């Protein structure tokens, strides 16, 4: 796992470098309330946010290795593959 740094600075010190891509599913009654959004960070890493109103202004930042480890584990745990 990453130590949470991007070079010598924290991922939370990095600027969002690109637009957010939105992935939706599991609709809870409103098409815009079941989405996860992800954007690149300057220097590497990702910013992840939630589309629900109560998630506004909150984000989780992860290194590329952390995102890959999460995705692989999530798929494996559910017996899914790409």
Describe the structure.
This protein is α+β, with helices and mostly antiparallel strands. It is built from 1 helix and 6 strands. The protein has one helix at residues 64-77; strands at 5-6, 9-10, 21-24, 35-40, 46-50, 60-62. Strands 3-4-5-6 form a 4-stranded antiparallel β-sheet. Strands 1-2 form a two-stranded antiparallel sheet. Strand 4 (35-40) and strand 5 form a beta hairpin.
Break the fold down into its secondary structure elements and pairings.
Elements: E1 5-6, E2 9-10, E3 21-24, E4 35-40, E5 46-50, E6 60-62, H1 64-77
Antiparallel strand pairs: 1-2, 3-4, 4-5, 5-6
Low-confidence stretches: 1-6
Adjacency order of strands in the biggest sheet: 3-4-5-6
Average pLDDT, all residues:
84
Count the beta strands: 6
- Biggest beta sheet summary: 4 strands, antiparallel
- Approximate helicity band: 10-25%
- Radius of gyration, in Å, reads 14 Å
- What is the structural class? alpha+beta
Write the element-wise H/E pattern from the N-terminal end onward: EEEEEEH
Percent of residues in beta strands = 25-35%
Enumerate how many helices there are, as a single number: 1
Distance between the termini: 23 Å
Shape: flat
